[in-house]
DNA sequence: GTCTATAAGATGATAGAC
DNA sequence: GTCTATCATCTTATAGAC
């Protein structure tokens, strides 16, 4: 028998995978239980309602992203290098079972999510956009990038483009779409 | 009593709305029947399986988009004007009940869709991207736009950005996100 | 074409034994 | 913590009357 946090983590990992491939409304507690190797009633012990699971899913995913972004900052010093590694991380998700960004697919399904889930979702977008905006600002200050308007608007556009490109990549089963779009955007912002 | 095509159209219109707000896996034949004012069994008369309804939904949406794009070409002569009107059309969708582009939300749920639905979905992306690419090519030839690489890559990136911006707009319940991102992208491509 | 009736299975969720 | 058992409800889908 496993302790609480061990099973909880297994459930979250499996649920994340299911949600990324089939969407929040595309998987059930039974699908999840089967994947983890326990009964669906046991899932309810850890997450009373599906919305509780959904909320935990977003928080965990956001925390993982925070770690990834910190690691990128640590390992890459140039804006170009950071952006490239950011895209590479997302590409890995696509390559693995054609998964989508968890929060991108959830945002598409926002109409059926609990208010709490939607609030957590917005935080994820806020954080990713803030990180991108910080990179863009530095890039412009260093004279590496050229773009009009606020870094915030540029970051929102870029992150939206990344999420949209992931969706299209999935539809066409072609992860090169994400990379091509990312490269194009960065080239378009390269200072002349 | 209504003739076949009349009810069929009512069903499709209601299903489109439900799908745009709740996603394909977020509405049932009963929800749909209630909205149309008939019984769910009657829906099955027009669309034996849900995937048949889904396929018809995409084809109809794509045809409507084709009409919209032709109309835009007819009424606007400049690339900037056409792009602006294209975005305005999508913004209207967002303003109305915070709806999402039908094919954007379906592409996000692609993992649960029938192969036929996925094929129709790709056609929608192909057509929108082809239209955008044609506009971008003309814009560059006229010296109004400046961008590197093929119009196809630029168009794919822009359309992905538009879909992504719609998703974010929905999550934040703020349709200005779409417009700001669209304006930013166009400004970024404006020839100096 | 639309209805009632119904099937067969899935779904989120709970009670209570171990 | 996990199980069995069970629930009420919902889901897609079909048969057959009108």
Q: Main traits of this protein?
A:
DNA-binding; 192 residues; mainly alpha; homodimer; 9 helices; Tetracycline Repressor, domain 2; elongated
Description:
2 copies of one chain form a homodimer. Chain A has 192 residues and is mainly α. Chain A has one domain (55-189): Orthogonal Bundle (Tetracycline Repressor, domain 2). Chain A has 9 helices and no strands. The first copy, chain A, has helices at residues 4-22, 29-36, 40-46, 50-75, 79-95, 102-108, 115-141, 151-172, 176-189. The first copy, chain A, is elongated. Chain A starts with a helix and ends with a helix. The mean pLDDT of chain A is 97. Chains A and B meet through helix 6, helix 7, helix 8 and helix 9 of A and helix 6, helix 7, helix 8 and helix 9 of B. The structure holds a DNA duplex (18 and 18 nucleotides).
How are the SSEs ordered, and which strands pair?
2 copies of one chain form a homodimer.
Chain A: H1 4-22, H2 29-36, H3 40-46, H4 50-75, H5 79-95, H6 102-108, H7 115-141, H8 151-172, H9 176-189
Helix pairs in contact in A: 1-2, 2-3, 4-5, 4-7, 5-7, 5-8, 5-9, 7-8, 8-9
The structure holds a DNA duplex (18 and 18 nucleotides).
Number of domains of chain A: 1
Rounded to an integer, what's the Rg of chain A over CA atoms? 18 Å
Greatest interface: A-B, 46 and 46 residues
Shape by Cα distribution of chain A: elongated
- The assigned structural class of chain A equals mainly alpha
Oligomer: homodimer
Count of individual helical segments of chain A: 9
CATH H-level superfamily title of chain A: Tetracycline Repressor, domain 2
Question: What distance separates the N and C termini of chain A?
Answer: 62 Å
Strand content of chain A: under 5%
- Top-tier CATH class of chain A: Mainly Alpha
Low-confidence stretches of chain A: none
CATH architecture descriptor name of chain A = Orthogonal Bundle
Write down the secondary-structure element order of chain A: HHHHHHHHH
DSSP helix fraction of chain A: over 70%
Q: What does the largest sheet of chain A look like?
A: none
The CATH topology of chain A is Tetracycline Repressor, domain 2
Q: Tally of extended strands of chain A?
A: 0
Overall pLDDT level of chain A: 97
């Amino acid at each position: 028998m496993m302790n609480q946090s061990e099973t909880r983590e297994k459930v979250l990992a499996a649920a994340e995978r299911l949600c990324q491939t089939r969407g929040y409304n595309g998987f059930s507690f039974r699908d999840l239980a089967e994947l983890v190797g326990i009964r669906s009633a046991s899932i309810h012990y850890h997450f009373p309602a599906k919305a509780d699971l959904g909320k935990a899913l977003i928080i965990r995913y956001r925390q993982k992203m925070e770690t990834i972004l910190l690691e990128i900052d640590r390992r890459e010093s140039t804006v170009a290098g950071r952006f490239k590694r950011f895209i590479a991380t997302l590409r890995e998700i696509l390559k693995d079972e054609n998964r989508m960004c968890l929060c991108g697919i959830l945002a598409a399904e926002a109409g059926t999510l609990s208010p709490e889930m939607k609030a957590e979702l917005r935080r994820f977008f806020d954080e990713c956009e803030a990180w991108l905006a910080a990179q863009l600002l530095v890039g412009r200050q260093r004279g590496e990038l050229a773009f009009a308007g606020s870094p915030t608007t540029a970051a929102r556009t870029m992150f939206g483009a990344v999420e949209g490109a992931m969706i299209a990549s999935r539809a066409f089963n072609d992860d090169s779409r994400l990379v091509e779009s990312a490269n194009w955007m960065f080239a378009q912002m390269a200072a002349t």
